[in-house]
Amino acid sequence: MSYLKPKKTSKVLILGLAESGKSTIIKVVIEGEIPKKNERYEATIDYQRKQKVIAGTELTIFDLGGQTAFLDRFTGELSEFIFSGVKALVFVVDSIEIQQISRAKYYLDLSLKKLEQYSPESTVFVFQHKTDLIPKKLKAEVGTTIREYLTTGVSKHMKFYLTTVFSDTIFRAMGEVYAEASGARKTLRPLLETFIRHNSASMAQIFTREGAPLTKVENVSNFDHISLTEVKEFFDAVVKRLAASENQTSTSMLLESDEHVFIIRFLDNGLALFFGFPKKRLRERNEPVPSLYNKVLAFSSQLTSITER
């Protein structure tokens, strides 16, 4: 299998208090592990770097330890090293540890000051995490309260997301981070929109292999009729088929429901394509499924060529 040799690099920080859920997010979204209830990961000591290639851009993701001693070093003596050249900061807040919110805000405010000093053009994402543990009727109220508190006295715009590793929310949120840090949306969205327009796709999205969406196309990529969890199940089916196959060069799967044709395509550059086409529209266009499949393959080649430049 060939891999991209990225010409661009980008730096992402993942920061938050100890046990806020940072390590679990990295295991699930970046490394592709299946989340398990009550599973605990070892605390990050100091910091760790993870590499992730998105659309030809190599992201260096800093997983920063959340113990007080580490946070004080990151925002103190190591601040220039940590906060220089940052494209995106992900600040993770434990939504159920309300007694820790004031401490989380202290380090968030310190981080924002360091970003303003060393990376003023960076984008800040706040993940209000572990929302699966909040009663459904209180989720919106808790989310609003935490958001209002964290933004008190802050002038820099921050993007807030309610997340949990047990739903699509964490993949959608990390997809936004990936898209911002890599510039993928600017690169990939025009290509996707052109393909949709010419081929009448009703569902279309470009993902990382772990399932984080990178593009948005109005009224198409919202997946009103299919959840990202179902897409992930399709991805897993493809992976299992590849693992069981003697010839592992095949990286596509075609699935049909009563009303749709779904095509999933994995690319060597770490991206995955998902398309849904309504059968009614295919009949109206007199478009046979093999022809549609070949168009997806051609689009895959075009996408790979663009992201390798």
Structure description:
- The chain contains ten helices and ten strands.
- The protein is an alpha/beta fold.
- It has a six-stranded mixed sheet, sandwiched between helices.
- Helix 7 packs antiparallel against helix 10.
- About 2% of the residues have low confidence.
Topology:
Blueprint: E1 8-16, H1 22-30, E2 47-54, E3 57-64, H2 68-74, H3 79-83, E4 86-94, H4 101-118, E5 123-129, H5 136-150, E6 158-162, H6 169-182, H7 184-199, E7 203-208, H8 228-244, E8 252-256, E9 260-266, E10 271-278, H9 279-285, H10 289-308
Parallel strand pairs: 1-3, 1-4, 4-5, 5-6
Antiparallel strand pairs: 2-3, 7-10, 8-9, 9-10
Helix pairs in contact: 7-10
Which structural class should the secondary elements be placed in?
A: alpha/beta
Count of individual domains: 2
Number of helices: 10
Can you identify the CATH class of the largest domain?
A: Alpha Beta
Q: What's the architecture of the largest domain in CATH terms?
A: 3-Layer(aba) Sandwich
Q: Describe the global form.
A: globular
Low-confidence sequence ranges: 246-250
CATH-assigned fold name of the largest domain = Rossmann fold
Strand content: 15-25%
Amount of helix: 40-55%
Give the tally of β-strands: 10
Distance between the termini: 18 Å
